[in-house]
Amino acid sequence: MRITLRLIAALLVAASLVVAVSTYLQVRAETRKLTEDLARRGSMLADALGELAAAPLAARDAAELSRLVQTYGGREGLVGVAVFDPAGVALAASASLTPDLRAVQLLAPRALGPEGRVSRLVRDRYIYAVPVRDEGTLVGVLAVVRDAAAIRTTLSRMWRHNFLRLLSHAVLISLVSLLIIRWNILAPIDQMTGWMKQIRSGETSAAPPVARGLFEPLASEATQMARSLAAARAAAEEEARLRQQGQSLWTPERLKEHVKEKLEGRPLFVVANREPYVHARQGKKVQVIVPASGLVTGIEPILLACGGTWVAHGSGDADREMADAAGRLPVPPEEPRYTLKRVWLTPEEEEGYYYGFSNEGLWPLCHIAHTRPIFREEDWRHYQAANKKFADALLEEMGDVRDPVVLVQDYHFALLPALIKRRRPDARVALFWHIPWPNPEAFGICPWQRELLAGMLGADLVGFHIQFHCNNFLETVDQALECRIDGERFAVQRAGHLTLVKPFPISIAFSEPPVRSQAEPSQEALRKALGATARYLGVGVDRVDYTKGIVERFRGVERCLEKHPEYQGQLVFVELGAPSRTHIKRYQEHMNEVEAEAARINARFQSKDYKPIVFLNRHHSHAEIEPYYKAADFCMVTSLADGMNLVAKEFVSARADECGVLILSRFTGAARELHDAVVVNPYDTGQTADAIRYALEMSPDEQGRRMAGMRAQLKENNIYRWASRLITELAAIRL
Ligand code: G6P
Asked: With b meaning 16 or more CB within 10 Å and e meaning fewer, what string describes 408-435?
């Protein structure tokens, strides 16, 4: 209230000052105007009367002078006329002039001096005196006195008028200020205070009530703070619960402490092609996009927990403007916890290294999904150069950190470990391969297999998701290179360097209790948005990639509807397909296949308000995907080949209600861990159709049992455990 009063008082003082100064200037101008008018008229009359009085004055004709002053002294607006001899002695004056005669007497004789005519405003009288000459001789002075009371009246009317105006402004200013303060400041503060109290006491997790206006930045900061508080509270509760139960699950806090101890406080370095935050231009705005990538889902929680540096390709069209001159920026943008270092590639480098060698060569080579790998010499040269470029960027980031620990990610960087080790033998380098490793015969078709393997074996530790891929890798190395395989330790000894090869099944940041997301649409709302009146909802979430078995999945739905017509009109399958690597011809063809297959199947079964397959072909954020996971009766992951597939784990993580069924391809790494999924061979359409029906008819009890089993598995084997194992293993290696 005191602030309100102070603000209003300050506004009023400012308004009063403005009105006072402007009125003063107005009054001064008006006075000048009225006085000039009096002077003009006084001068004309005095001149005219002076001429009439010249002769009688020269003759000292008192009677004539008296007649003159009486005759003209009574004119309208005139108070009177007076005549003086050259010595300043009054010779005649109008009777009405008596009260003012003294003032006239004091002024009039000055007209005899060098000034000549004189005039003055004395109280309400305007006196104008002129010297009178008769044939050139000064014979006296004539003064006319006009009534000037009108000036005072006009001026005081002006003051009064402006004062009233000020008064009305003051009332208006006070009222408007009060309302503005009330609506725009006090009410939002009240709401925020109430919200903060509720947040503090844990009564709500909703967004702050103030989303716009003056308090928007504050509200957004408060939201971040509330989120951190909620996360810290949940972590503390979880820790307490675990202590209580004598368990020791891996949490971000535990990982942080563990890494601190293992790395003796040194920072962690990660190199991965895909960046966790892409800045993309959308009209005039810059949007932050979290890309659809299992790698980002897996790796980011580790950096969020432990801090460090993530070296990645800056692929967004607004990436440069959001980073500093060295390509660095703190992330996540809303609450920075680690550094993202962006490496810039030319379009030719990106074409050759990323699209060409990595994704037209190595990707189909490692995923046996019947797309022929393409190996071009030019792409290989770009791949080598890009690996070198990333190595240089990483070496620069590492600076003089002694014994740095580096986690290199994926098939984009097979050459990086050796490049790093050559220049920093003190570095501990792990390479984690997120995709499958095929058998030696399949891998052997790569013209540069020896160079790739030699680059990889620069690492101290090479990790795959499953033992099967480790075995394939060891066999490949054995057949392609001169080296010694240590079958007991699962290691490769080559040119005096030892590389351990081990499985580390990657996971997600499973959280329990689940993080409550705000304003999540209900299953009903979701169905409405899809235009689905159907009873059952199935979901698939993928990058649109030929390894994901999306077409096979659609055919499974088709076969199910064929075999079990009772589900026609009742079952809707939603595919959230993020466009991926669309620059590559095979991906464009695949996108067309997926669209055509959905259209073909829909044409068979659709009616006015039903179609069995909804293909939502765009990027969906985690927040957008989550409600689908929660609403689905089943989730289908039908990859033809997949290192792990974290979508399967995300679906399980979202189902805190222990409902819903996971249909999972046996060709995923996840199938080795999630034994309670309904496992299928996606090439077997009939089996997939049966699995869908089985899922739809599964009793709630069985769903609960299976889901609880998978959740317990995930809870134990989360991404923090994965990172702790990898880092412990790496730190234990004797260089
Ligand atoms: C796979 C790869 C990741 C990659 C992701 C997305 O999961 O193993 O390294 O990040 O696909 O692919 P993209 O080409 O879009 O990075």
From this structure: bbbbbbbbbbbbbbeebeebbbbbbbbb
